[in-house]
# Entry
Amino acid sequence: MLDLNLDLVLVPTGILFLVAYHIYLLYRIIKHPNTTVIGFENGNRRVWVQQMMENMPNNTGLALQVVASNISAAVYLISLSITLSSLIGTLVGASTTSSGTTGSTKGLCIRYYIHVSFLISTPHSSVPADYIENSVIRGSNFWSLGLRAYYFAFPLLLWIFGPIPMFICSLGMVSTLYFLDSTVNPIPPFPIKSSSKARAGGVLDIDRGIESNAGLNQYRLGGLLELQ
# Structure
């Protein structure tokens, strides 16, 4: 009877902690992207697309190599999610939603990266850079979503050993992810000089009006990169 009560209390509480943290993280990504690693990396990806598009005939091979590396990593994680789903299904006698979600989100990630490879390898096309940026960021977001499904799978795997290990794992997972995902001080952007002759000396900033701790430097981050 006691074990049943612990299952009814600790397991939903642990899942609630994980869901509540990711809702909080989503709010931080939307409202304060420069204080999260995901938002900061999305800004860096916008810079990468801009740099690749500046000298596209020469950068096509490099861009396709980077996209192919991301596709290979997503395929590997899909195979890992299938193995993990089979393992958990064998132990508990049922399939897991988390591993299935991982496979589907990684599939969407691959879909967007393949779409990017078509767009970025088309010479002299009229496709705007913003469209390619959005496709790259969507693929990256689905990659992150697939990893989050993995994080949900680990506490469920420990549920095999009882509700207490599952609950402790959920609390430890939330604490670790909070430490890795966000920062109190905004992350300063990497200023990248344009390689184009027409933009020589220009700097691409990927922040959104954030002042440094010393109050000396000011950066700008918008939906589109601004040349200063």
